[in-house]
Prior knowledge:
Blueprint: H1 3-7, H2 18-41, E1 44-45, E2 48-49, H3 53-75, H4 86-123, H5 128-149, H6 160-164
Antiparallel strand pairs: 1-2
Helix pairs in contact: 2-3, 4-5
Amino acid sequence: MTTESTMTQSPARTRPARSVLAGIAAFAALGVYVLVSSVGLGLWTSLGPGPGLFPFAMGAVLASMAVLWLLQELKKPSAAGEGADGGLVLAVVVSLVLLAAVLDLLGFQLSMFLFLMFHLKIRGKRSWLTALLTALAGSVGAFYAFNYGLNVALPVSSIPVLNLIGL
């Protein structure tokens, strides 16, 4: 290695990459769309929060994060990425389609448990203990939080044997 090669460095990026700006624009557009759509649902009723309040808050958070991301990129642009991992994108899309397909058959708890185990153990290469505990918390915990904490019914299994044991 010569002195010249250590002294010569590529110039720092002065402008954000187009792909980054496109991502920021997509997040901002989605946030604004959710904000506008949620107003039509009603933000407040005589009994308290309306059905549009939570989506409105999430749309505001998403739009705000897009603005913060833009400011961060304008201040210090991120390094150019290599692109998306096609295998990861395909695995996520296929597993989400499978999750949607088996949700009514197996129910939320078992379907989400299998989905999380796949992503944690196989894709994420986590230990068995970490994957099992996280998948149980994410599937069973979320089911009970929604069903009993928020009073929002999630699908249960349509298979009688699984339904009998509470899945």
